[in-house]
From TrEMBL:
PANTHER family: UPF0260 PROTEIN YCGN. HAMAP family: UPF0260. It comes from the Bacteria. Belongs to the UPF0260 family. InterPro entries: Puta_zinc/iron-chelating_dom, UCP006173. This is UPF0260 protein ACFOOG_08435. Coiled coil: none annotated.
Length: 148
């Protein structure tokens, strides 16, 4: 059996190499769901509307130009993780920031790039709708939960 280099248990987010940092993403695409912020309370709500550029394998169709195509697409950097309080509680960056281990289905633990999707942990297992299929003034009707 191949020994896993569990760097995420040994290093902080800021100590990781660029390659380790990239590999930490589990590919769940929960951060690709549209979110709405209550301006009075700063609370953030997830909708079931997913970015139009997510493909059927849960991958970004425009990865290299995503920040040009979708200005609101997050560009997560080590110093920013604490600021993104809305990240889902399964997000690997949030877990490591909070000193927690990665779940058993994470690709870094399974050695299989698609294990998040295969274990039903991605948005592909939710009743999502592409965001360009719904007018923006109706997005509020698609709220599914509040970010914690
Ligand atoms: S929520 Fe976190 S782990 Fe999931 S795709 Fe986004 S950055 Fe990656
Ligand atoms: S551009 Fe790609 S990474 Fe960004 S929100 Fe859309 S699908 Fe997700």
């Amino acid at each position: 059996m191949k020994k896993v280099n569990a760097f995420w248990r040994e290093k902080t987010l800021t100590e990781m190499t660029a390659e380790e940092w990239e590999s930490l993403c589990d590919g769940c695409a929960k951060c690709c769901l549209q979110k709405l912020e209550d301006e009075d309370t700063d609370e953030v709500y997830y909708t079931n509307l997913v970015c139009r550029y997510l493909d059927a394998q849960c991958r970004c169709k425009v990865y290299n130009t995503r920040h040009e195509k979708v200005p609101s697409c997050i560009w997560l950097k080590p110093a920013d993780v604490s600021a993104f309080k809305w990240l889902p509680d399964t997000c690997a960056y949030r877990l490591v920031y909070e000193g927690k281990d990665l779940p058993s289905w994470h690709p870094l633990r399974t050695g299989k790039p698609m294990s998040t999707v295969k274990k039903g942990k991605s948005v592909l297992h939710w009743p999502v709708i592409p965001d360009d299929a719904v007018p923006e003034d109706e997005w509020e009707d698609h709220i599914i939960f509040k970010a914690e």
